[in-house]
Amino acid sequence: MTPNAASGPSRRSFLASTAVATAAVAGGVPLLSACGGSDGGSRDGTTSKKDAKKILPAYVASNVVTPDIPSKNGSAVGFTGKLDLAGLKTSVPKKLGKGGEVTVMSPFWGSPPKEDNAYYTSMNDLIGVDVVWQNQDGNTYDQKLGAVLASSEVPDVVVVPGWNMTGKIPSAIIGKFADLGPYLSGDAVKEYPNLAAIPTDAWQRSIFGGKLRGLPMPSSYVTGIVPFYRQDVFEKEGYEIPRSCDEFMALAKDATNARAKRWACLDMKWTAFNAFGVLSGNEKSLGWNETDGKLIYRIETEEYLEALEWTRKLFAAGVVHPDAKLGKSNAADPGPKFAAGEFLIYNQDMSQWWSRTAEQATQNPEFRIWGMDLFGHDGGAPTLWAQNPASIFAFVNKKASEAVIRDVLAVANVTAAPYGTKEYMATNYGVEGTHYTVKDGVPTKTDQGNIDVMNAYVMVASPAATIAHPDFPEVAKGQVEWQQRMGAVTKKPSFYGMQITEPARYTNLSNDFEQLEDDIVRGRKKIADMQQAVSDWKSKGGDKLRDWYRKILDENGSAAG
């Protein structure tokens, strides 16, 4: 869950934050897909470095389009120019689809369009495959996913976001979905050039049960949570960008005037975690890291407690907006009050850099949102921890024929086309004139485009992460350069890139910590309550889980870097 967010991730949030380095790591890290039963703790498909080379697709960088800003330190590639429709490249010169029908079940946020809409029709014609969408409500997708995977009626393709890989879902993935290795491993992927250009890190995450089962949506390994601030207000008031936790507190007190209905910030817990160098909480395996020969979980560290204490002090000082104090920030869109100047800083997904800019461009031309560089708590450089390089996957039914699998790969080869190609525009914008228009090099969706061209084809596979905003190129530049600076101080924890599923008996072990964190920073609980919770976590299974992870580490080596 991202901070200050609604209960479910938005399409814009996860799509806009998909960015990954274009330079893949040859050979990669050791891979593992572990699936433990309720009492056995057994693992399926431990994949050594040697075996991974046999499984992973060959990486062939795309040279169809050259980005304005190349990837660096794990950043996305960036495009800062206007869009030239006449100059769009072709990355799929001939249809690879053979005219078959493919059913795809995928999460969908919003109202699904009619089945025979112009977007679906044009995409199917471009690909040469009749894709039939079984869109499901993204907010309750986990329930539908569990039911479908437990049944005998599984669609040809099923999209599974990482946040839904809980309970029995991982073992179902291994049992229900096909090995794509015969079609994609090694040089075989070259039949699908856009898939060959997907970075190796993302394919590493697509190995489940020792087989290449997933088609990935690549993402940057740099943290996607940015401390946003009102740059226009900072400049007007003469505020300096803080470079330490003490400087942030001093600024927050200076900027807060409750009588004038202005507070410094919302809940800054996630920025605190970064400032104090706390291991990632986005995925359980990323919360572990070997330090001085000992395997430590994020909640056991002093940095974790220090980050919570500093965030608590912000609330206690009265510099946090009352909505966040009451917990409303997790249920309401912070945009309007941020635009109104009720608070000046908040942390959220990087996608809001563009979306807030676009929202206010006409009605509030002086408004300027910008991303603050993360700082070390003591004023030095921060220690940031890498996220995994792919978090959403499309899987093909194990019972699918070769013809169906190849039609699915034909779909993926089009949807993974890079920015600046005809296939990318078709996938992301639809049909010119019907779904979008272009004025001064800026594509704008029509009302029909906003109905039809939603999160469908992009869910099958995506290109190496890209940031491009022809309407606000300065934002695209700012986003990529922010990732590059933060990537320079980002480390990879011990289990980076490994596809790991914890044994079922540990599934709920850490479930209550996020609520306890929020209670502590708001003053409802004390740091001592967290220390007790950590002690209970250890005795209830945390120490045994550590032993389980230690065995993985001993057998496969560390991905730390």
TrEMBL record:
Its main location: other. This is Extracellular solute-binding protein. SUPFAM superfamilies: Periplasmic binding protein-like II. The keyword Coiled coil applies. GO terms for cellular component: cell envelope. Gene3D superfamilies: Periplasmic binding protein-like II. Residues 506-533 form a coiled coil. It comes from the Bacteria. It is found in: Cell envelope. Belongs to the bacterial solute-binding protein 1 family. Keywords: Coiled coil, Signal, Transport. The keyword Repeat does not apply. Signal peptide: none annotated. PANTHER family: ARABINOSE-BINDING PROTEIN-RELATED, SN-GLYCEROL-3-PHOSPHATE-BINDING PERIPLASMIC PROTEIN UGPB.
